[in-house]
Design goal:
- The protein is built from 5 helices and 7 strands.
- With 175 residues, the chain is an alpha/beta fold.
- The longest helix has 24 residues.
- It is elongated and about 80 Å long.
- The model has no long low-confidence stretch (mean pLDDT 92).
Length: 175
């Protein structure tokens, strides 16, 4: 009986090792989707992030026209990568509002001067409270909002050139 007890730690270690190995080899979906898709925008009112653009509130998103709500930060490298696509969407007639997450007015202004400013309104969310209410897990993240203020789509990560036609189609379908 004592001989079997000597092997017990090795067997337990083997079971633990097997469980860890299976967990590492099984791919997981690490994307956290918002539970707000299909629901109205939460009520919020954010101060202006920079002097050149007005503040942003949830009532600004309910005007009968679909639009994009982009969550970005000046310190975010993927936000730089998506800047040309946001400018392209703006040139295509898309109204884009923004929430600047955990940022300063000076850094936001420098970011927009360097990479372009496609935004009609920019709200400053220094504590990420609105971002969290939206179910956003990071920056950049973009939401399609229909004219009634309903979140109809969430795009996680930077917008790449191949995403532009998809977003334009979703916006058209949201009218």
């Amino acid at each position: 009986m004592n001989r079997w007890l000597l092997w017990l730690p090795l067997v337990l270690f083997g079971l633990f090792f097997a469980a860890v190995a299976v967990g590492l080899m099984t791919p997981k979906d690490n994307i956290i989707e918002s539970k707000m898709v299909g629901k109205p925008m939460p009520e919020f009112s954010l101060p202006a992030a920079i002097e050149q653009r007005p503040a942003l509130s949830s009532s600004d998103l309910v005007d009968g026209k679909p639009k994009l709500l982009n969550i970005f930060a000046s310190w975010c490298l993927p936000c730089i990568a998506e800047a040309p696509q946001l400018l392209e969407l703006q040139k295509a007639g898309v109204e884009i509002h923004a929430i600047a997450s955990r940022d300063t007015p000076e850094d936001i202004a420098n970011f927009l001067n360097r990479w372009g400013n496609p935004y009609s309104r920019i709200g400053s969310d220094t504590t990420s409270s609105v971002q969290l209410e939206l179910g956003s897990s990071g920056v950049p993240e973009t939401f399609v909002i229909d004219g009634n203020g309903i979140i109809v789509h969430q795009h996680i990560g930077d917008i790449r050139p191949e995403h532009v036609p998809e977003l334009l189609e979703i916006l058209r379908d949201s009218q």
